[in-house]
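Recall that a protein's primary structure is simply its ordered list of amino acids. Everything else, from secondary elements to tertiary packing, is in principle encoded there. The following example makes that idea concrete.
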Amino acid sequence: MAETFGRPNNEGRRLGVGVHTVSLKSVEIKETPNKNKYLELLFANNDGTASKKIWYPKLDEVKPKENESIEAARQRVIDNFTGDIYVALDAIDAGEVAGKDAEDFAVKAISKLRSANAAKCKIVLQYDKEDKWPEFPRYRWATHISMEPDTSKFRMKPESQNDSKKESTINNAGDLF
């Protein structure tokens, strides 16, 4: 059998820190061994992949913040879950979704996301708190292909030892392409 020389297969390679134009490769509902559910979105391009986990809300374990009712705390957790999913839906123009509970909402969202077959979007990956690994920022981690994400508040470069208190950022996301 002859070897083939060409572009390497980067499926197992993780995307690095920066703004990446990607396609949504897969979306699945998964469960941990201790029964915690999450939606896993796998984004890919020729340079590698990035996986975003969106954890289902555990409404029975919600702890209200100071001066917050339990109902408001539960709604905050639900809004975080649906908000993260809507970042993906909006980034690939997949449309609106509503559901009677987290499972119903997630199943309908998966259907919409899968129907946008290979739609491109832009994702942002920043350094984690230890400046070791790329991770999705908490908010606005994906945008429509036609938009430039605002990365001004994201940790895009590791902090140097001399500037341990200074947060490094990128001012122009267009410089990353």
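Residues 18-59+67-176 form one domain. Residues 64 and 72 are 8 Å apart (CA to CA).
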